[in-house]
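Hi F.,

I've been meaning to write this up properly since the lab meeting, where we talked about keeping a consistent format for the predictions we share between groups. The idea is simple: the sequence comes first, exactly as it goes in, then the structure tokens exactly as they come out, then a line or two of notes. No screenshots and no reformatting. I'm using this chain as the first example so we have something concrete to point to.
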Amino acid sequence: MAKVILAVEALSFPFSTPDPFLFAVHHKDFYPAGDDLMQAPRKGNGADFNPNSKYRMYHGGRVPGFPQHPHRGFETLTATVTGTIDHTDSLGNAGRYGGGDLQWMTAGKGIVHGEMFPLLHPDKPNTLHLFQIWLNLPARNKMSDPFFVMHWAENIPKINTDDGLTEITVWAGELENAKPLEGPPKSYANVDNSEVAVWFLRMKPNGSYVLPPAKGGKDINRAVYYFFGNSASIGGRNLKDKHLRVDVDASLPCELSFPSLTSSKTEDETYFLILQGRPIGEPVVQHGPFVMNTQQEIMQAFQDYQSTQFGGWPWEKDSMTHPREKGRFALLNGTETYPPGCDGSVGSVGDVGGGKTSTSSSGVKVVLEGLSSDGMNGKTGVKGNFNEENGRYEVTLDDTGKTILVKPENIRNVEL
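Output, unedited:
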């Protein structure tokens, strides 16, 4: 029988990655409630990456995150699970996203952007859980125009196994019948035979899933990251509590599972991240935030940045955040767009940010209807407090546990 496992290595921070990827990192920070300025209780030292800390400030001061910094020559995929990210860039674009949203940005010939993590909630923790993945660009597209797309959580395809024990989020790359949302126009993922895939699996005890072979077989790189949980099996090899990167033969099916070795609680999970793609196969020369093909191109990138600042920084602060009351949005080339069912205020369907609330008929079972997003209509949840400033109710959805704000006319009480 052919062996599906090709290589095994201990996880590093950030994760080592196969061509066509450059970098991958997993962040999970348990930020506390924020103050009036959406700040944390302590100030960062400018380089706070302590893995043993409950939360890290990264390059931020009182607001955690990554103030303005440049990139050239590759793409970033910032995939959120929980929490909030505020984006600003040198082209005047901006956004607020989180709770399952994905921002996919082509840096191309050069962009400066900031990624800050405002602590929106003043009365509860602001846990942040995300991945950032760097995908290389082939030489022909390294100097393409910068661009980003926002994939809202409501639109991102997911696969749930029949037993309900495994959920797969499809951020890139078709899997079964789940077709991913389209990336930026110059992305390597858009090349027909690239087979670029980014899949995130959350598995409960005794869950399992078999990755199908890639169309390109052995020509495709496929890495499986087991980075969270107390046991896992990849390709028949039991990994127990050792978190590892496992390279597998993409020409073969590969079973991933979460064997229940102990009396695990039902809320325990194991996480897998899959990075897959056909190698670009070009020289990679990287210096910090610039990734090119030659040392001369790296030197040119520094010269260009020093002389042009990649368009300059049009924002009042290096660590720019948006107002607390602003909902999820994407501002690109002067046009602002929103998630399905949202109008750009925190009171639309989306994450709850703030606002004056008063108690109401909390605990009432409701169903959503009449929203512009068909994907939201028919969802059920529990109605909570009424937000007086926005004229909407808090509703905690049954399927995700996420709390959103919904207009009264879009809520129908359910008779129990």
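Notes:
The radius of gyration is 22 Å.
Residues 347-362 have pLDDT under 50 and may be disordered.

If this format works for you, I'll send the rest the same way.

G.
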